[in-house]
Write a structure and sequence with these properties.
Layout lengths: L22 H8 L4 E4 L2 E4 L11 E5 L5 E5 L5 H7 L12 H6 L11 H23 L6 H20 L5
Antiparallel strand pairs: 1-2, 2-3, 3-4
Bound molecules: zinc ion.
């Protein structure tokens, strides 16, 4: 993993609008060279490493949360902190906003492919953290938080698929 780069001031320009932003808006507003590749999917420059060709893929899940994947291996925690956001900002806080957009979870059936893609992404995140530790990097609180989030997301997917036995 890359050393953390801080971008002082990143995101502050949007703080006023923040309460009305959906997670995807908050993320896309802060990224450079955003390009929409498909409905609910974008690519952009990764803010967490020295990115010259857009290597960050961004997806909006049906429930409004944002999935980030850097093909150079930056973790979601690194990416959001480079944007001046936190992992919590990737989750919709206000579901009324979602139904206004017609993308609320009640409108669509459960999407297994979506859920499996999400789980695959979480597995990748976990592997990258393990690899970093294996290289001798310290297991910091942020990585532990990220692993807990991975577990939570997989739990969520299981619940959405019909509940925990
Ligand atoms: Zn990156």
């Amino acid at each position: 993993m890359q050393p953390q780069k801080s971008r002082p001031g990143a995101g502050t320009a949007y703080d006023n609008a923040r309460s009305n932003d959906t997670p995807i808006d908050a993320v896309l507003h802060r990224l450079d060279r955003v390009k929409r590749t498909a409905p609910g999917k974008w690519i952009a420059l990764c803010p967490a490493h020295d990115d010259r060709r857009p290597s960050l893929s961004i997806r909006e899940a049906d429930d409004g949360r944002v999935l980030l994947k850097c093909w150079s291996g930056c973790g979601a925690a690194e990416i959001v902190s480079a944007l001046g956001l936190s992992l919590a900002d990737l989750f919709p806080g206000d579901r009324r906003g979602l139904s206004d957009h017609g993308t609320g979870p009640m409108r669509r059936p459960f999407d297994y492919r979506d859920a499996l893609q999400g789980i695959a992404h979480e597995a990748t995140v976990a592997r990258l953290i393990v690899e970093a530790v294996n290289r001798g990097e310290e297991m910091d609180a942020e990585s532990l938080d990220r692993l807990a989030l991975a577990e939570e997301r997989i739990d969520d997917a299981l619940r959405a698929a019909g509940g925990v036995q």
